[in-house]
Amino acid sequence: MSQNNFYLLSLGCAKNMVDSGSMAQVLGQHGMRGSATPDEASVLIVNTCGFLEAAREESLAALRDLVRGRRKGQLVIAAGCLAQRHGASIAQDVPGLDGIIGTRRWMDIFDLVQRLRLRAHPEPLYHLPDDADTVGLDERGVLRASVEGASAWLKIADGCRRPCAFCTIPKIKGTAVSRPLETLVDEARRLQAQGLRELILIAQDTSDYGHDLGMKDGLATLLDALVTAAPDIPWLRIMYAWPGYVTPRLIETMAAQPQVLPYLDMPLQHGHRSTLLRMRRPANIEWVYQTLARMRALMPDLAVRTTFIVGYPGETDAEFEGLLDFVRDLQFDRVGAFKYSQEPGTPSAVLPDQVPEAIKQERYDALMSLQQGISLAKNQALVGREIDVLVEGHGVSEDEAGAAEGGTLSLGRSWRDAPEIDGYVIVEGELPPGEIVPVRVTGATAYDLFASVDLQGPAVIQPGQIIGEGAIQLQEQT
């Protein structure tokens, strides 16, 4: 075990991964090195997720495991959303925890390590200031991006000012604070110099970027600046847009800039006005219809991802049927669904007419079954078409029993696929990782596409047919 080594486990969303990478850079500025295992490190950090109950339990379990297994001289620190939300109470759930640092001052991680090493008593130390105004202004010179292969998640803002009745993020992160445009432009240039092929813009609400800076259409302005500053990054992807803030200028910018992928992640949360009003979400359903129609007219290849909550308090059978009709009408490319989680301290937690768990599950199953059919039809429509794929890695084909069949496969993503949450394109043969390669789609499932680099040959699977799920699996190779 080296005093200069740290181990950092990042849980939760991509925004957490960026914070984890930033903490690692701060520690590196002071001569510390990351370790792949806890055994080799003197400082053990878990960047926790505190959004839902299941995520909280996962975070607490990870901390308990590190505390139980630590050796003499090792420090265990809870960082991130769970730490910010629950503060000192985490030490009661994880006896023996050394330090707690929240989301607002992640840049002070090395300062906390030093204080822990110099402390005279074994009581845990807490670093949980509520001030979020330093976001973008006191970042210790680190790159606020998480790089995975040829892709990078770039955080453009932190916090949220939206009033969603079910959400704890404003309490955890504070209000929305945008990072300066010139900082983001500089970071895009630095990522371009690293040979990045995809830049993914993230925040709690990317479409709110620049509001606190006095900018109008801030996200569109940022996109124009990034395209100019980093012309050699071929893919720019937008995540987490807010309904109602996808403005005409943003749509026109997406359509006019070839680097900006025709992809939009816009969590809608429901499709019935009454439910949305109780959620304190935008409830203008007609706006969604009109905006997606406008976007699809300008970008025929537009891929739309959204998320929905089923079983929200007071959700009637009619409201749920309204959600299903909404999904049938708008034909989303990707849908993520969540069963409502009753989060203490949120307005929705005390609403009457909480929905029983069994009904939540039934509605979740019905929604996902409907969406699978829509996703399958959209994927089948691509069979025979040539598309570009960003190659991420290699594997081998397997039979249903898991035995290797020997065929080499490449795993990649198209413009329709954000990392880790959407589908894959599985390509015959071994292609160079990190490169964008044209392929021809030969088959489809509800989630993934199959393709060949033979652009001239006949499609293996004709449109309307399907390769059965499980017929081809990937065994990732390191």
Which architecture of the largest domain would the CATH scheme give at its second level? Answer: Alpha-Beta Horseshoe
The figure for the number of domains is 3
Enumerate the spans where pLDDT stays under 50 for 5 or more consecutive residues: 458-478
End-to-end separation: 25 Å
Strands in their spatial order, largest beta sheet? 7-8-11-12-13-14-15
How many strand units?
20
- Could you give me the name of the CATH homologous superfamily of the largest domain? tm_1862 like domain
Can you tell me the CATH class of the largest domain?
Answer: Alpha Beta
| Helical segment count | 13
Specify the oligomeric state. Answer: single chain
β-strand percent reads: 15-25%
Look at the structure and give the mean pLDDT: 91
* CATH topology type of the largest domain: pyruvate-formate lyase- activating enzyme
How is the biggest beta sheet arranged?
7 strands, mixed
The helicity comes to 25-40%
* Class inferred from helices and paired strands: alpha/beta
